[in-house]
Design a protein that fits this description.
The chain has helices at about 15-25, 50-60; strands at about 1-10, 30-35, 40-45, 65. By secondary structure, the chain is an alpha+beta fold. Bound molecules: copper (II) ion (CU).
Length: about 70
């Protein structure tokens, strides 16, 4: 399963690292690739829970505004 998240609030590569770490910390997530320019994160894993991803990103200080 693969989902693309739109993430608001990232301004630099440290933000990218924080979001990447937050997403990779969710159980079931096998890969998370965050892109600053497009404000997106492509997450892959077995069962991706939208609420869990939103919560993890929010905990890191950023906001998921859309999940596709
Ligand atoms: Cu930053």
């Amino acid at each position: 399963m693969k989902k693309t998240l739109s993430v608001e609030g990232m301004t630099c590569n440290h933000c990218v690292m924080h979001v990447t770490k937050a997403l990779k910390g969710i159980s079931g997530v096998t890969s998370a690739v965050v892109d600053l320019a497009s404000k997106s994160a492509v997450v892959e894993g077995g069962a991706l829970d939208d609420a869990a991803m939103k919560a993890a990103v929010a905990d890191a200080g950023y906001e998921v505004v859309a999940i596709a």
